[in-house]
Amino acid sequence: MKQMKEFTIPFVGLKQGEHHFDYKIDNTFFEHFEYDEFNNVTISAEAILVKKSNALEFHFTIKGFVNVYCDLTNEPYDQKVEGEHHLVVNFGDEFNDEDDALLILPHGSYEVTIQQYIYELIILSLPAKRVHPGVEDGTLNSEILEKLKELTPKVSEEDSSEKSDKEIDPRWDQLKKLLTDK
Description:
The chain is an alpha+beta fold. It is 28% helix and 37% strand. Strand 4 and strand 5 form a beta hairpin. It starts with 7 loop residues before the first strand and ends with a helix.
């Protein structure tokens, strides 16, 4: 995957201490990852870099909305997205990003790319099941919901009372006797 320049931070020239980087995330960011499940994206991402003498610490914060389709009704809606992630960058003999909270860069590195961490933070901040808020509070009117209501099996009072009035099969009585005849 090609690096996005604005998400590559050259840390060599930075003084020790705290540095802020702000990003506006939209659909083009996700096109870069070939991820097309969002209709529209409006997210603010902030990366705070604390440069220390022997390490770097990142604190990522995201806040905004992604327009997605409801898993139940397929109606589009704005899903709120919020999240935070902490990343420590150390230096070692070779590159290692196996741990999601620790990145090891080879000695002599002068920049770090953070686009993957922001991407994963956004994706993991979404709920597993996307449900339109109108479904939860009953205010959404959609053809699919109407059809689901129409197709839902109905249990009437007559059905439930018939079951209790029906005579029990006499064979069950014979089996029950076996239990009590001990």
